[in-house]
Amino acid sequence: MASGDAVSARALRPLRRPWLPRRATLLRAGLFAALLGLAAAVLHTPAGCPPGPAGSRPPPSGSSSGSPDGEPTGGAGPSGTRRPAGPGLASGEPGGSGDRSGAPGSGEQAGALDGTDGGTDPGGGEPVAGPGGRPAPLPLPSGAVGVPVRLAEPAALAVVRPGARVDLLALPPGADGTGSLLASRALVLDVVGVDALDAGAALYLALPPDQARRAVSQPEGSRFAIVVRE
């Protein structure tokens, strides 16, 4: 009888549903598992990490146009490279700022007839020295005519140098007094035979065509003289 009562009492107890975890509990468990996984990954990470790609590093400041050695490639172009000078535009090339070879439009041409010296160095206004320390001959300016003149007094050649300006005078044979002026401020291109000071010594002048014709048309035996201007 007692056992029957126990069975009936057990049968009358309320039936409990099985316990299910709540949503918050599941979220906490998931976060805990993620933290455990992250900690395990950190513990197993090697001490040194491989460097990133070479292109990922930013270039050093101020070296956008430099060479691999750090030297600037210079220039004023949009890409930072120096544009080469065009033909004939560099100093010292024909047509450039350093050209003094008597090409058309150079200062030497303009100085042939306007009273300015051409063919001199830009520093001190002296002709460029040739072999032996003597001034080198000057080139013949465009539009001028080269005329060699033998002076009646060759010793006067000792005080003349290429690039000087002289007045050329002529005295016909047998005439006395002052000679006639053939050319004013003529450019001296060269002095020939200055060391010998004999009959072979001569002065090489650059004259305009009309003055050159007057000089060579002088009668035979005419004596020439010069007056040094510069």
Automatic annotation (TrEMBL):
Gly residues: compositionally biased ranges: 116-133
Annotated segments matching region Disordered: 49-141
UniProt biased composition (Low complexity): 62-71
Record protein name field: Flagellar biosynthesis protein FlgA
Source organism of this protein record: Micromonospora echinaurantiaca
Biased composition (Pro residues): 49-61
